[in-house]
Amino acid sequence: MWKVEADGSNEYNNFQPGSLNTTYQLIKDLNNVDMVINIGDICYANGYISQWDQFTSKIEPIVSVVPYMIGSGNHERDWPGTGSFYGNKDSGGVCGVLAETIFYVPTENRAKFW
């Protein structure tokens, strides 16, 4: 849903310009949306906190109106030695901490998986 600068700045190779179209269309159609489920590879931040900031800013009109649930993908969680299936460095070292913190879900067991 998000890995592109709205004005094209600060991107050396824009692979996903269509993600803005998806985000903007969802914002326009919010009256017909009950919930959004983002199923992994949430913002492709790969360890860059500024990418999370841009992503949360862009989805603010959505998350302020409807429930927004996530599932962690390899770009949120994967790091060698963390129990990841692939053991690569896709998360940039954050190992799911940012996704878990930004999209906090209350639960009986708050044990940190990292």
From TrEMBL:
GO function term, MF aspect, one: hydrolase activity
Record SUPFAM superfamilies: Metallo-dependent phosphatases
Gene3D superfamilies cross-referenced by the UniProt entry: 3.60.21.10
Alphabetized Pfam families for the sequence: Metallophos
InterPro entries in the cross-refs: Calcineurin-like_PHP (IPR004843), Metallo-depent_PP-like (IPR029052)
Coiled-coil residue spans: none
Annotated ranges, domain Calcineurin-like phosphoesterase: 17-89
Source organism superkingdom: Eukaryota
PANTHER family registered for this protein in UniProt: INACTIVE PURPLE ACID PHOSPHATASE 1-RELATED, PURPLE ACID PHOSPHATASE-RELATED
Protein's name in the database: Probable inactive purple acid phosphatase 27
Native organism: Phoenix dactylifera (Date palm)
Gene responsible for this protein: LOC103720076
